[in-house]
Input
Amino acid sequence: METIWSFGTNESVETDKIDLKPFKPTGRFFEDVQTLTKIFNIRVHPALRESTYKSENDEDPKDIITLSFMKHRLDRNTLRTMFLCLPPA
Output
């Protein structure tokens, strides 16, 4: 599988039947996203990379206040990953 995110590649992966019992949320959004993308065998969407939201003033990058998706196309598996990671964070 390629290492760069693409809508078609992520959208075509069937994740509905994947067992989520091994997924234990840490409460750290970006770590949980990385874990789920490995479980789902998909690529991390560029808008969900930690470096996108990290600034020099961030003391604790686990605190997600805003996610920005202006002009980004989202596949269903990226949305599923995000919705599973947000509540614990």
User: Anything to note?
Assistant: The helical segments are 7-11, 29-40, 50-53, 76-85. The mean pLDDT is 85. The longest helix spans residues 29-40. The CA atoms of residues 26 and 32 lie 6 Å apart.
